[in-house]
Design brief:
The structure holds two protein chains of two kinds. In chain A, α5 (about 110-125) crosses α7 (about 145-170), α8 (about 175-180) crosses α9 and α10 (about 200-215) packs antiparallel against α13 (about 250-280). Chain A has helices spanning about 15-40, 45-50, 65-70, 70-105, 110-125, 125-140, 145-170, 175-180, 185-200, 200-215, 220-225, 235-240, 250-280. Chain A contains 13 helices and no strands. Chain B has helices at about 1-20, 25-55, 70-75, 80-110, 120-130, 135-145, 150-155, 170-200, 205-210, 215-225, 230-245, 250-255, 265-275, 280-310; strands spanning about 55-60, 65. The longest helix of chain B is centred in the N-terminal third of the chain and has 32 residues, at about 80-110. The chains are: A mainly alpha, B mainly alpha. Chains A and B meet through α1, α4, α5, α6 and α7 of A and α1, α2, α4, α5 and α6 of B.
Chain lengths: ~280, ~300
């Protein structure tokens, strides 16, 4: 990696101190909420509201975690979220791979139009769609089902996925296609044997982006599901924050368990994210 | 003999390939792209038209839609709540995006060089962006809490304030709090992309400038900033759109209160449709009113994106 310097001369001690001080401040601001969340989740009820607060639990306990495991709403909504997000991401990926392949490798009338159509639909503000989707989902009889969520999730995932994947597919030289064609490969075989393996980083990045986005979608599950068995995790946590007294220990243990898979996923695939996003944005 | 046969075979496959390039190509390509297009038309564009149509109706739950013409539009424009939401949304969006950009840029500049621990610090900076939003909102809500909230506790312990501040209870503070959470959650996006942009800058530009006697500050303003202009524009554009439409953070923290101090367009829509008048038609009017602003932003964004593609 290049040693870039952007004008900051870190040779003097004062500058170096300022530099590390700034980094420390930012790190503190960024990481403290995580620390506090985890610490709170291990506190018993008595310790939660102490002043001055204990920055490390005096009597750490797993009580909160045990309690939430017993709550059907938590486990159920966790499972629902996993089902919905994974299903919608996979479906979006499949549909987007075909569409991106079509747009990147074939020349036909309307290709540019379809490209613009998809890009435009990515930029459409979501509030514009919420009310009509509510009506449509109702008319389709899909209200309060997980399928309605899968359906709406893929509409948010597809435009972005197609956009990124088209860029990736285009960057793969056509000569490889032609060589395979001469060898007798059909178009589909070319797609699976040649293009997909080469575009693997882009596909991984898109999949991750859709997974992360899916977990963050809040408005759709809020209005499309109402019964407890169909709730997703974000809404379940929200429901704990209604009323007067919130069980903060429980809530923090829920959020901690919701965060862990993400941290793990992140550490595993951080290279792909940077590459995937960088290609999408910097490429322009 | 064998040579002739292989020659014929190569010619045949070549002709077959080029022939099929022009004949079967069209149908196959259309079939491939059909699912994506069908979904987008059915679940994005059709709803847009439905929304436009709904905005001219009064649609209460359980009742058929009644045509009311421009009444919804008039009601909103003369309604203090709509204007409050407008003011709040613009404040929220521009403050949050501006701060996110500055923080992201500063962090990217800091991390641009090699130094011990750099990789870990980079991961740490992106963490808030990567975790689910509810996690961030729940945690911050707990930190802002009047009873047991750690922010107040720390401020009181260090003597900065004497009694706890009502972070989510005071109208002005609530907006600041909500912006703070949005910034904490969202600066990672700016950080990661601006960093990529910074690393693309050719180091020789700086060396040349240094030879010419330019100071560090001049190097920053004349080399760094212009070089990341394209990337910055795209990132700012997207963030503007996303922040403008943000619903979750405000809903989880303040639900639009206190006294509508943090009511945004998105929460107003939700309120109109599912809480107060329960009038879907009226709710559909809100995005119609703000869409022109949006269209302008989108056109500008598209120009930058497509302008870049053509250059390639």
């Amino acid at each position: 990696m290049n040693l870039q310097y952007h004008g900051f001369n870190s040779k003097t001690l004062v500058t170096k101190l300022c530099f590390y001080f700034l980094i420390f401040i930012f790190l503190f601001g960024v990481l403290f909420p995580f620390y506090w969340m985890i610490v709170t989740s291990f506190k018993g009820y008595g310790e939660l509201y102490l002043f001055p607060p204990t920055f490390f639990p005096r009597a750490p306990t797993f009580g909160n975690y045990v309690a939430i495991l017993g709550e059907k709403l938590f486990l159920g909504s966790y499972l629902n979220s996993i089902i919905v997000v994974f299903t919608s991401s996979l479906i979006s990926l499949l549909v987007s791979i075909f569409a991106a392949y079509s747009l990147a490798r074939f020349r036909y009338r309307g290709a540019a139009f379809i490209s613009s159509l998809l890009l435009f639909s990515y930029l459409v503000p979501r509030p514009m769609l919420v009310i009509p989707l509510y009506v449509i989902i109702g008319k389709l009889g899909l209200m309060d089902t997980l399928s309605s969520l899968v359906l709406t999730y893929i509409t948010t995932a597809i435009p972005f996925s197609v956009w990124i994947l088209t860029g990736y597919f285009r960057s793969i030289p056509r000569e490889l296609d032609e060589v395979a064609a001469i060898d007798g490969c059909g178009r589909i075989t070319i797609l699976f044997k040649i293009i997909l393996p080469l575009a693997a980083p882009g596909i991984v990045a898109v999949m991750i982006f859709n997974l992360v986005n899916g977990w963050n979608i809040y408005l759709y599950p809020l209005i499309f599901t109402s019964s407890a068995s169909k709730r997703l995790l974000p809404i379940a946590i929200n429901e704990l924050m209604l009323g007067d007294v919130f069980k903060w220990g429980r809530i923090m243990s829920m959020t901690t368990s919701a965060t862990l898979p993400f941290v793990a996923l992140f550490i595993l695939v951080r290279k792909h994210i940077v590459r995937g996003l960088g290609a999408g944005a910097v490429k322009g | 003999m064998i040579q002739k046969r292989t020659e014929k075979k190569v010619k045949k496959t070549f002709l077959r390939t080029t022939e099929s390039f022009f004949k079967k190509e069209y149908t196959f390509a259309y079939v491939l792209v059909l699912p994506a297009v069908a979904i987008v038309i059915g679940l994005v564009f059709y709803p847009i038209f439905l929304n436009i149509f709904s905005s001219f109706t009064k649609k209460l739950v359980g009742q058929p839609a009644q045509f009311v013409g421009l009444k919804n539009y008039y009601d909103h424009l003369t309604n203090f709540l709509f204007r409050t939401a407008a003011r709040n949304t613009f404040t929220y969006t521009f403050c949050a995006v501006g701060i996110k950009f500055l923080v992201g840029l500063i962090m990217a500049l800091l991390v641009n060089k090699q130094f011990p621990g750099r990789n870990i610090i980079r991961i740490c900076f992106i963490l808030p962006w990567f975790i689910p939003t509810i996690v961030a909102c729940a945690t911050w809500r707990w930190m802002f809490n009047d009873l047991g909230g750690v922010i107040n506790s720390m401020l009181m312990m260090s003597g900065i304030i004497r009694s706890g501040l009502p972070w989510l209870g005071n109208p002005r503070l609530a907006m600041i709090s909500v912006i703070m959470v949005n910034v904490w959650k969202g600066f990672g996006f700016f950080f990661i992309i601006l960093l990529a942009g910074l690393q693309d800058i050719d180091i020789r530009l700086y060396e040349a400038a240094e030879i010419d006697g330019a100071s560090s500050l001049q190097g920053f303003f004349h080399i760094t900033l212009p070089s990341i202009k394209n990337v910055a524009t795209i990132v700012i554009g997207f963030s503007l759109i996303w922040t403008f439409n943000d619903f979750q953070i405000v809903h989880l923290l303040t639900r639009g209160g206190p006294f509508y101090a943090t009511e945004l367009f998105s929460t107003l829509m939700y309120r109109t449709a599912f809480i107060s008048p329960l009038d879907l038609g009226k709710a559909a009017t809100i995005p119609m009113l703000i869409f022109p602003v949006f269209a302008v932003c989108m056109l500008i964004l598209l120009k930058v994106i497509f302008g870049g593609e053509q250059r390639q």
